[in-house]
Write the structure tokens for this entry.
Amino acid sequence: MGREQLVPLWNFFSEWFTHEPRVAAQPYLWHYDGLRDLLLESADIISAKEAERRVLVLENPGLAGRHLVTDTLYAGLQVITPGEVAPAHRHTPVALRFVMEGTGGYTAVEGERTWMEPGDFIVTPSWAWHDHGHEGEGPFIWLDVLDVPTIRFLGANFTERYPQERFPQGPPVDDSLHRYGTNMRPVGYARESLASPVFSYPYSRTREALERLKQHSEWDPYHGLKMEYIDPTTGGPAIPTISTFIQLLPKGFATETYRSTDGGVFAVAEGTGTVTIGTGEAAKQFRFAKRDIFSVPCWAPYSIVADEESVIFSASDRSVQTKLGIWREQR
Ligand SMILES: [Fe+2]
């Protein structure tokens, strides 16, 4: 069989066709305080220009050497210091940013800038030129999440560097947000790509919506008050391959145990509490505080107890799974 390039299926049938998902990722939480010191130290060792992107990658202990936060997502913390520029490039994987700290940092997509504030959710669509800069003071830090594993799996992985440091200036600051992000769109708008034309979802707007909604909401026992970021022109996910969410849990709220086939990476925007991930002896409990990041593997049950009012951002591959018709949840 081997000489004829043949392999018997029965040798690995049960490995491939499993009763339930079997993934490599493990429950894990990164405490921001510890990471921050290392991140700042990295800024002394290598410049953003030398590094192209100065990122410390959040590598799940179950995915050692694979550089991934879950089986299907990459995540890392990126820092830039005042005056630095992370040079313009583009790639087929989509990137999202969730801003951790700092003021005066910007991202430019195709030359259009948006100033970033903590809690902002920023999208860099597939194959869009982008550069980052910092014109404020102190370090500027955000979480990157990319769909690299999906793109690498499919093979369609392209990257290109722009010949200059910055992409030429495009539309005015936040033009897209004003044009597409206020429940209106230009007359005659025709969709040109799968990417949401809005690439900045400011925390000030998100937070205000949550604040209003919490006054009169039926709390979902599994999620509290959970909202999904969308592409306003379609109502679909803000990113074709990554679903993104923000949830508010009131002080003292304890979610029921929940699981779904997307799992994902969670970043705490506000609050403190405890998250329990996994079942039985494999269950792990972590204390979380503002800016901590945790990884929930596919199909791992989890529950969250909020000691203070907490706001949590999350990203997962749900939008891929729903397009394929395979997404499941268990309440
Ligand atoms: Fe990039």
Q: What stands out?
A: The two ends are 46 Å apart (CA to CA).
